Fold this protein.
Amino acid sequence: MTDPTLPAQLADIRDEFLELEVRERLQLLLEFSNELPELPERYSEHPDLFEQVVECQSPVFIFVEVDDDDRVHLFATAPREAPTTRGFASILAQGLDGLSVDEVLGVPADFPLTIGLTEAVSPLRIRGMTALLGRAQRQVRERVSV
């Protein structure tokens, strides 16, 4: 499935989900939850930098960094007991990592609806992932406008 507005690494993640049956997609989401990157040491002692995404059913906190090369890095925390939320955060952390500011800002707001999980999880959970993406994009805009 080709989408010129979607960066390759997000398109690969989406395609990986869409190649599976609905039940298998939940398993893949669980795998992503186990792959949520640990926080770098420079942020692990600074929870005050992170923004809670209150639209998510479980507590998830994100922080976006834009490096000197205008590359984006998304950091997130979510409890292991919340695999759906952790999975969504991990998809975005992995899918946005290293992209340019323009690529991140160009990710369509409906990306969470395109990965084939609308049949597997509740609309409330999909709204949470959509909020994660929206907050990440807002934080990117804030970082580059300073």
Q: What stands out?
A: Helices lie at 8-18, 22-34, 41-44, 83-96, 101-105, 123-144. The chain is about 45% helix and 10% strand.
